[in-house]
TrEMBL record:
Sorted UniProt keywords: Leucine-rich repeat, Repeat
Organism: Channa striata (Snakehead murrel)
InterPro entries for the chain: Leu-rich_rpt, Leu-rich_rpt_4, Leu-rich_rpt_typical-subtyp, LRR_dom_sf, LRR_domain-containing
Entries under SMART domains matching the protein: LRR_BAC, LRR_TYP
GO cellular component: cytoplasm
Gene3D superfamilies for the chain: Ribonuclease Inhibitor
Protein name: Leucine-rich repeat-containing protein 28
Length: 369
């Protein structure tokens, strides 16, 4: 194997290859042949997946200065050197399926980076410097131990695809709503309890996946026309037997601890409580739109312009009862192949998401009849 490796690298140097494939070579150290003399100044793509590397050399950028793509998928890399930030031309970096516990801040110096894949590592946090990657289009940090995302992530103005599945996220930074090029957002299998109300205002955002967030009880109505994955949403936890008022009181007290300001009231399917902001908007909507026709004066209520606009143009209506909805909805999925709509759509594997204004409508809504 050593002879074959030596010949492969020797041939790459002699013929000035731009691509070098060193996958499945049982490497546990970075090949010194790549770093001798002037290195491979002309190499643009280096593939080294499925080896046993534990780290990268400090002089990698010096010896391979023109790297555009570096694939290190499925190694045992625990740490990457600070010198990684010197790869000025690097556009794609794949460190998936390694043993990374920390990502150095120098990653933010890769100003040409467009694709960063860090899935299936042991990362507990991301450095704020990730926000300096203004050319970044794809970020995959799924299957780690992240409890949050850096607030500066919203500076990645080119970000189109963000995947954070299978982590420990309990909330999403509201600044994500500022990523106007974001097309796909996947946060399945986390611990989300709510989503930012403004999420989905961008016309570019088309796909939102939040499956298996068991504490997520509803979705903002701004996601109304998006393709939603939410098999873990819309399910309220069952109420324990006993004195209902006491149980609910204790449950609400526990649930409200540490919750953000967006969550005004926590309810269950039993008590049919909707968030206070939503309830207020619905009440005001009825007052504004069902007052006597000869009454020209508005009710003596002062509201911000944004809320007045919402009253005039609700973001959606309940599929079950046509109730106007303003801030939150309860989603219910129906695979088209199991419904009457299957004959209307050619793609019968797509799911139809019905939105309801309450848990009561969620339970009673039946697309079949």
């Amino acid at each position: 194997m050593a002879t074959e490796l030596h010949e492969t690298i020797f041939m790459a140097k002699q013929e000035r290859h731009k691509n070098l494939f060193l996958n499945y070579k049982n490497l546990n150290i970075f090949p010194v042949e790549l770093l001798k003399d002037e290195g491979l100044q002309f190499l643009e793509r280096l593939y080294m997946k499925r080896n046993s590397l534990t780290t990268l050399p400090d002089n990698l950028a010096q010896k391979l200065p023109n790297l555009i793509e570096l694939y290190l998928h499925s190694n045992n890399i625990v740490i990457i050197p600070e010198a990684i930030g010197n790869l000025a031309r690097l556009q794609s970096l794949d460190l998936s399926n390694n043993a990374l516990q920390l990502l150095c801040p120098e990653i933010g110096r890769l100003r040409s980076l467009r694709h960063l894949r860090l899935s299936n590592n042991q990362l507990k946090c991301l450095p704020p410097e990730i926000g300096d990657l203004q050319e970044l289009e794809t970020l995959d940090v799924s299957m780690n131990q992240l409890m949050g995302l850096p607030d500066r992530l919203h500076r990645c103005l080119s970000l189109q695809n963000l995947t954070v599945d299978h982590n420990l996220l309990s909330h999403v930074p509201r600044q994500l709503c500022w990523l106007h090029r974001l097309n796909q957002l996947s946060m399945a299998a986390n611990r989300l309890t709510f989503l930012p109300l403004d999420l989905g205002r961008s016309r570019e955002l088309q796909f939102v996946f939040v499956d298996n967030n068991v504490d997520l009880k509803g979705l903002p109505s701004y996601l109304y026309n998006k393709v939603i994955g939410c098999s873990g949403c819309g399910m309220s936890s069952p109420v324990l037997e006993g004195d209902l008022g006491e149980v609910l009181g204790e449950a609400l007290s526990e649930a409200l601890v540490g919750l953000p300001a967006e969550v005004k009231v926590v309810g269950s399917e039993t008590d049919n409580v909707v968030p206070l902001e939503e309830l207020a908007m619905r009440s005001l909507h009825r007052i504004y739109h069902h007052r006597p026709t000869d009454l020209n004066l508005l009710p003596p209520i002062t509201l911000p312009k944004s809320l007045l606009d919402l009253l005039q143009f609700p973001l959606g209506h309940c599929h079950r009862c046509s109730q106007a909805m303003f801030t939150i909805v309860y989603p219910k999925l129906f695979p088209l192949r199991d419904t009457a709509l299957a004959g209307v759509h050619r793609r019968t594997t797509v799911s139809f998401v019905a939105y309801c204004c309450s848990s009561h409508c969620l339970r009673s809504f039946n697309l079949q009849g």
